[in-house]
Amino acid sequence: MTDPVAATKEGEVHDISGDGKLTKTCIKPGSGKKFPKKGAKVEVHYVGTLTTGSKFDSSRDRGTPFTFDLGQGSVIKGWDQGVSTMRKGEISTLRCHHEYAYGEDGRVPTIPPSATLLFEVELLSWSSLEDVSESKNKSLMKETIKTNPEADFSFKRPTYESEVKLTIHSLQKFNGVEDDDDEDFDKILSGTPHTAESTITMGDEQVPKELENAIKTMQGGETAKFIIKRGNWSQYSIEGSEVVVFLSVASFTSPKEKYEVKTNADKISEGESRKNQGNELYKAKKFKRAVAKYEAGLSYMEGDDAELKQATLPLLTNLAAVQLELKEYYNAEKNCTKALEVNPKNVRAITRRAKAKRLRGDFAGAADDAKKLLQLEPENTAAKAELAAISKAKAEQKKKDRATFAGMFEKSSMQKPLKPTAAPVKKELEYKDEVPRQLYVTACSTEEACGKYQLDLYECHRDHPVWVREHEDPALGAWRIFSDPNSTWKLGKVDSMEAGLGYIKADAPHENCIMPNEVTNWLRVGETDEEGDWCKDTVTKVSTEAPVVGPEEKSSE
C-alpha cells in the first residue's frame, strides 16, 4: 500500500491497493500531520458516480454529512482503506473496483453488477478519541497509537495486582484541544520520556488511580494517548485535574485467575497471603488499600466448602475493622454478619458488629450484640464499654435532634414564594421524638434557578441520608438531604448523567427507610464519583418556612 503521506499531493494519482483496483486522486490537499486510524469516527461529504458519469448517491444533495467508524466494516472496503489515507479537509476521488465496492452482484438497480465506482470524498473531520471512562462521562478519553498483536498478553488487560512494565512518554497539563491535527506522535514518542520504563504493581498507588484506570484499558505492546479530566497530579508537579498522557505498556503479568486455583490448600494460601499484606497496610493506616487486599483474598475462597468458610473468618473480621476506620459502617456490619454465619460465637465479629450498629444509629441492635457478647464472656470489657457508649450516643443523638428540629420549628417567615397559589399559611407541626414529616428546601444547581419547595421527609438510619419527595415540580424528582456528612447513598443505579447531575432510580425501598407507597421512585442527587460516592451537595438550606400552600395543607385557624 502507498504511504499515506505520499497520497496527499494535489493532482497525483496513487495506487492504494497496489494492484490498481483502489486508487486515489487528490483534488485538494488537507491540513495537519495526522491521518484517521482504525476505529476513528469520521465525518465526510461525498458524491458517488458510475464510470458513465451517472450520479447514484450524494450526501451534498441531502445537505447532511455522513458519519461512520473507520475500519469497522460498516462501509465498503474502498472507503475503509481510502479514507484512512486522507487528512482533515482533503478532497479526493476514490476509484473502487467492484472488489472494493459492491462485488459482482452490485446493488441492483442502483449499482450494476461488477461496477467500478467513483467517489468524490471530502474528509470534514475525524476523532480517534474513545470514551473509555467507566461511567462514560468523557473523563477518560483514549486514542490508540500503536498495537502489537503478537505481544504476550496482547488480548488481556492489566487488573488489580498486575505487574506492568510501563513507560510514560509525556505527561502534561491538558490545553483543552482534544484533536490536535499538528500533534507529532513520532516526535513525542522518540523524545526523552517523562518517566523511563519501570514496573508498577496495580493497586499499590505508585501512580494516581486515574492513571491506573487508563492502564487497565491497554494491551501488552500498546502505545496510546489519554486525556484524563480528573485526579490529583501534584506528584508530577502539575496543578489542576486535567492532563494529557502518552503511555506504552511493554508487557504485564497478572495474578492467578480464580479458575486456575483449584485445591482448598491453594485457595487458602492465596487468601492468607493477601490477608498478611492487608494487615501490613492496616498497620500503616493505608485503609483503602487494605480493603482491596482483604477483598481480593476473599475472592479466592468463595463457595460453600466448610474448610474455606472457616478460613474466611480472619479476613472478614479484619475487613470489618478497616471499614470501621473508613466509616463504612454498613459494610462493616455486613461482613461481621457473614463471619457470624460461619461461627455465631466469633467474639471479634460480635464486637465489631455492635460498634458498626451503634455508629449507624441502630442502638437497639448494638445493645443486643453487646449483651450477646457478655453471655459468651461475662467479664468482656469491650462489651461493657460498648453498652456505655451506646447509652451515651443515644442520649447525645436525642439531645441533638431536639435542639435541631426545635430550633427549626421556632422560626417563621413571610418570604414571598416563587409561584404562590395563595397567601402563606403557618402550619402547626408538633415534634415528639420523631423526625418531622415536612420541611422546606432552598435548592440550587448550576443549571436551574434557586427556589423553595415543599417536601415530605422520611427518616433513615443515621448514616444514611434523609430523603424527600418534592411536590411543587414533579419533573425535578426528589432531593436527598444528609443526616451525616460522610453518608453515601447506595440505593438503585445511576440511570443517566445530564447537565452534570446524576439521577438514581430507586428500584426498591431501602431496608432501613420508612418509604410509603406514594413516595416518588426518583431521587435527585449531585455528582458522584465512579464508585457512586457523593461528591457535591445540591441542597443548600432547610427550614420549616412554608413559601407555598400545597393542595393538602390547611390553615391553623
Count the helices. How many? 11
Estimate what percentage of residues fall within beta strands.
15-25%
Secondary structure class reads alpha+beta
Based on Cα principal axes, name the global outline: elongated
- For this structure, the quaternary state is single chain
Overview of this structure, please?
The chain has 557 residues and is of the alpha+beta class. It is built from eleven helices and 21 strands. The chain has helices at 59-62, 77-82, 185-190, 209-215, 264-283, 287-299, 306-325, 329-342, 347-360, 363-376, 381-410, and strands at 13-15, 22-28, 41-50, 55-58, 66-69, 91-96, 117-127, 130-131, 140-146, 163-173, 195-201, 222-228, 243-253, 438-443, 451-458, 466-470, 480-481, 493-498, 501-505, 522-524, 539-543. The strands form four sheets. Strands 1, 2, 3, 4, 5, 6 and 7 form a seven-stranded antiparallel beta sheet that branches. The chain has a six-stranded antiparallel beta sheet with strand order 8-9-12-13-10-11. A hairpin with a 6-residue loop joins strand 1 (13-15) and strand 2. The radius of gyration is 32 Å and the shape is elongated. The model is unreliable at 411-557 (pLDDT under 50).
